[in-house]
Amino acid sequence: MKNKLKSYLVFTSLMYRVLVYFIVPIFMAGIVFVYGGALGGAVPIVISVLLSAAEIVCDNWLFGGIQAKDAERLDYLKTSERGNKIMRNALRMDIVRKLLTALIVLGICFVVPIWSKGGKGYIALQASGTTEALLSTYAYAVAISWCCSIFGIFIARYGSMVWTNAMVGYGVAMLETGLWSISGRMKNLWGYSLFYILVGVAFSVLCVKAAMKRMEDGYCDK
User: Fold this and answer.
1) 51, 106 in Cβ contact below 8 A?
2) Which of 139, 171, 135 has the alpha carbon at shortest distance from 153?
3) How far is it, in rounded angstroms, from Cα 45 to Cα 25?
4) pTM across the whole model
5) Residue 147 to residues 66, 81, 182, 197: CA-CA distances in angstroms?
6) What is the CA radius of gyration of the chain?
7) Is the Cβ–Cβ distance between 124 and 137 less than 8 Å?
8) How far is it, in rounded angstroms, from Cα 71 to Cα 130?
9) Backbone region of residue 31 per phi and psi (left: phi > 0; alpha: psi in -120 to 50; beta: other values)
10) CA 59 to CA 61: how far, in whole Å?
11) Rounded distance, CA 151 to CA 99, Å?
């Protein structure tokens, strides 16, 4: 695990770490703290959508263009015998990091209103008064946010410009907002959560395979 983490950190700049590890979570928590009362039941929707979009845009400074045919960001790894392993570890750790970020950020955003406003008028607790409803909404928010961010980066990595990530992020935000509006989802949040996790896993595999194929093809200049 230590070596995998080191492989991942090789690709992260100081700006990326500050932005993703500190600014984004603080910004999300700030939205909930200031506007949570006004947003009410829309809090998990707003935060999960914004988090997905932020992950997709920020990915440009990490693995932007890594799946593009004319990508040059992998060239220096080809000089090392451990290049493939470092790349694969970094890609996998990034996927895990995105899931952990969704768990933490959305967890904070669910706790902040309860702590600051006693939970009054907040999402599922208001509607049903049960802890299970809150947990299922939290699981759904994490699953759909992570799934959409992985789907978005898979598409965006075929382009190297930040505007590509921004456009993909916007499109995914619209898609995710629509998915939150699916009729009848409240009756089976756990089932939908599992579905989005499985879809996210599928796109995670595709992300790793697409990047590794691009790197391996580069050895023979395909």
Assistant:
1) yes
2) 171
3) 16
4) 0.88
5) 20, 33, 16, 6
6) 18
7) yes
8) 50
9) alpha
10) 5
11) 13
DSSP code, position 19: I
Both tokens assigned to 6: 């080191």
Length of the chain: 222
Tokens 């263009």 belong to residue? 65
The residue with tokens 């391996």 is 216
Per-residue pLDDT of the chain (222 residues; tens, 9 = 90+): 777 888 888 888 888 999 999 999 899 888 887 887 777 778 889 999 999 999 999 999 999 888 887 766 565 555 556 778 888 999 999 999 999 999 999 988 777 665 555 444 444 444 445 677 788 889 999 999 999 999 999 999 999 899 999 999 999 999 999 999 888 888 889 999 999 999 999 999 999 999 988 877 755 554
- Residue type for 95, please? I
Amino acid at 104: I
Q: Which amino acid is at 94?
A: D
**From the centroid of its chain, how far is CA 17?**
15
Residue 74 to residue 207: CA distance in whole angstroms: 15
Which residue in this structure is represented by tokens 């456009």? Answer: 167
